[in-house]
Amino acid sequence: MKRLAIKIRESVVRVAQLFRYRSEKAVRFGLAIVIATALPLVYMLAFEAAPEKYHPLFVVERPGEAAVRSADGPGEAGSIRKVETPEFVKGIYITTSTVGWRSRFDELVSLVERTELNSMVIDVKDYRGEIAFIPESEELKPYMSDKPMLGDLKELTPPLKEKGIYLIARVFVFQDPIFAETNTDIAVQRAWGGGLWRDYRGIPWLDPASRKVWQYNAAIAKEAFVGGFDEVQFDYIRFPSDGNITSIVYPVWDGEKSKAEVMGDFFTYLDNELRVKNGIPISVDLFGLTMWQHDYDLNIGQTLRYSLPHFDFISPMVYPSHYPAGFNGYDNPATRPYDVVYLNLLRGQELVKKMQDADAERQAADPGSAPAELARFRPWIQDFDLGAVYTPELVRAQMTATEEGGGSGWLLWNAGNVYTEAALLPAE
Asked: Model's pTM, two decimal places?
């Protein structure tokens, strides 16, 4: 019942966000088009929240079927080959629900094939904390979704990889309602009245200092990699916010280390456990302001300095609409997409240069030491209307800014997985 309540609450939030987004579109395209466009997503969300006894009322395919058929290609199912990291990653974000929705996933696979896109970022553990595939580990199975939309990864990934698509598994980490509800001893608590602390959306969080949480997420990453993903990307790697944080009690973190140091310890653990021991490429999502403010952790523990040594890629969320009015003197940063993305990348490179210079001095003093390898920047960029109408030109401006700002790729974000093809170049 707890899991169902969480599903229903989150689905209501998503539907509300959807209609808020669609209402903005209504001004441009008309209410009739908006409603027609929204109905399939409402249908999909309704299925996610529906109790098991009502599932026969919904016509859906077995989880994983749509994804496998959508990407039919040469090679036998289960023959997983590695796709090398593209020299310049050009990716799109895809939810688990979209993977399980045959026609939509078909369209996105086709979009990658006919354009310059070469990568997909797919949730393997989503905002609800549910594992979206069928894990082999018995310890992970209790946290699997009732309807794991990705199915068996060894059936999902091979046909996609035969097409040369670089697959990135996205993992929500410390925002994890399912793991928090079932492991309350390592979940953030309320100082008054007892029980789990929840953010303004009613979502509980895990203690970022808990090693049990670290191990759990590393185990998911390993299964995703063995199942055919080429890289694992970690999101929501921060201390909780967006709620009454003064009422929080941490069951593990004692407050002696700073939040940034705690996150640094977690990053070191992921590096050793995944990159060093298992050769798994890993990346991390950070708030865009970490590129701009190098010495302030935003009170959530995120800093560029602690992240750079431990990941292959850092993906700052440099959505222009998310910067406040007056940022760098811009009345509305959303209307300046090239400038926002380009300047943030340059600012991030300044810290990289300082760290490289410090490392060069260390190596000069100790010639036998290994050089430090720092992550490359691969930003999330905006393909949604917020703060401005995002035309193909504005979307493309961010891509150009990434290339000219020294980035190693870009990832397009749209929560509804609807992307602007006119902003993309055709496939070579």
From this structure: 0.82
Q: What is the CATH number of the domain that holds 270?
A: 3.20.20.80
Q: Are 401 and 338 in contact (CB under 8 A)?
A: yes
Closest CA to 415 of 26, 6, 95, 12: 95
Phi, psi of 346 (to 5 degrees): -60, -40
Token pair 């760290």: residue: 355
Residues 280 and 348 in one domain: yes
Range of the domain at 46: 1-59
Token pair 């140091």 in the structure block, residue: 261
Distance CA 169, CA 54 (A): 31
Strand 189-190 vs strand 248-249: parallel, antiparallel, or unpaired? antiparallel
pLDDT tens by residue, 355-409: 999 999 988 888 888 888 999 999 999 999 999 999 999 999 999 999 999 999 9
Q: Are residues 268 and 306 in the same domain?
A: yes
pLDDT tens, 313-357?
Answer: 999 999 999 999 999 999 999 999 999 999 999 999 999 999 999
Q: Does any domain span residue 428?
A: no
Map residue 289 onto helix, strand or coil: helix
Burial of 236 (0-12, 13-18, 19+ CB in 10 A): middle
* Long-range contacts (CB closer than 8 Å, 24 or more residues apart) made by 37-44: 40/101, 40/104, 41/416, 42/15, 42/18, 44/97, 44/101
User: What are 314's strand-pairing partners?
Assistant: 284, 377
The Cα 236–Cα 129 span in angstroms is 11
Asked, for residue 268, whether it belongs to a domain, the answer is: yes
Q: Could you tell me if residue 234 is inside a domain?
A: yes
Same domain, 410 and 325: yes
- In this structure, the answer to whether residues 205 and 102 fall within a common structural domain is yes
Instruction: Tell me how crowded residue 141 is: count the other CB atoms within 10 A of its CB.
Output: 12
Enter the DSSP assignment of 115: B
168, 171, 69, 82: which is closest to 127 by C-alpha? Answer: 171
Give the chain's count of helices (H) and strands (E).
13, 11
Please identify, among 15, 30, 59, the residue that sits at the C-terminal boundary of a domain. 59
Please count the residues of the chain.
428
